[in-house]
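We were asked to recover a plausible sequence for a given structure. The inputs and outputs are reproduced exactly as logged, with field labels preserved.

PROBLEM: sequence recovery
POSITIONS: 291
GIVEN STRUCTURE:
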């Protein structure tokens, strides 16, 4: 991996880690479905403007079905799941649980026969599950049913990201990253439109929530999704999902800094196990130089 790729991965991790405190702020005001729809719509507008400036064309009509499937896995379902989790669990929890994305990415590679599922990878899955269980049990919140359901929602979102990474990589081979990114968010907004409209009467237009949602839509969704697709075009999908390794560090830090969330020593073993699991299943070794 080249140095510029590593720098981009760190940048993605820092910004995506910051998305979890923003979700925690916006989700109670907007609700999971309207928030996801508005986030997709804002991202689509930003990317459409960039397309206009760079004079790039939209994907052909025949490609939109595949764009809709990609949108369901990498935008619609994860947004709704993380938004719902943001109602019940701290932002730091969501960020740490998002680190399971590479586990699911490797499993997806095995399912699609793009990678072989080995003993270390299976061991990594077991270690990852143990880390999640330890995190929930020893963290600063009581592990009641709403908390456990929030954890399950985060894991489901991470699974969507992991499996979606395979399709995302394929999309970058067939389309330019910017038009594909814009099409994914347009499709996401359309998919969510009717459910979001049904839940619209309960939306609270608080200034802080609107600001958080605007940053989520324009920066962490729109611009950074495009950057992610550009990066994935140049490196393997499993390497691209390794940005999730650093997201817990940033997510927990942003949550403590801006939301005053409690960080307890009991969380450290769970975080460590999740990161070790990700390293096992992806073969990632920070001490080994890339060539």
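RECOVERED SEQUENCE:
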């Amino acid at each position: 991996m080249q140095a510029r790729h590593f720098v981009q991965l760190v940048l993605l991790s820092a910004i995506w880690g910051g998305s979890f405190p923003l979700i925690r702020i916006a989700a109670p005001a907007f609700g999971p479905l309207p928030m996801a729809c508005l986030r997709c719509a804002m991202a689509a507008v930003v990317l459409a403007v960039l397309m206009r400036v760079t004079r790039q064309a939209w994907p052909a009509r025949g490609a939109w079905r595949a764009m809709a499937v990609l949108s369901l896995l990498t935008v619609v379902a994860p947004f709704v799941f993380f938004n719902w989790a943001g109602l019940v669990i701290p932002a730091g929890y969501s960020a740490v649980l998002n680190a399971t994305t590479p586990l699911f990415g490797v499993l997806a590679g095995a399912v699609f026969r793009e990678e072989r599922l080995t003993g270390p990878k299976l061991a990594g899955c077991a270690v990852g599950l143990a880390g999640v269980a330890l995190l929930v049990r020893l963290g600063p919140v009581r592990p009641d049913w709403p908390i456990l359901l929030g954890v399950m929602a985060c894991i489901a979102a991470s699974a969507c990201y992991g499996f979606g990474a395979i399709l995302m990589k394929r999309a970058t081979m067939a389309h330019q990253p910017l038009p594909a990114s814009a099409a994914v968010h347009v499709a996401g907004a359309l998919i969510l439109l009717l459910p979001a409209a049904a839940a619209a009467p309960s939306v609270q237009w608080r200034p802080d929530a609107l600001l958080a949602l605007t940053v989520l839509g324009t920066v962490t969704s729109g611009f950074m999704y495009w950057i992610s697709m550009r990066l994935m075009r140049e490196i393997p999908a499993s390497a691209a999902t390794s940005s999730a390794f650093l997201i817990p560090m940033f997510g927990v830090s942003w949550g403590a800094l801006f939301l005053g969330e409690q960080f307890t020593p009991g969380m450290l073993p769970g975080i460590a196990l999740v990161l070790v699991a990700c390293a096992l299943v992806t073969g990632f070794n920070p001490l080994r130089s890339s060539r």
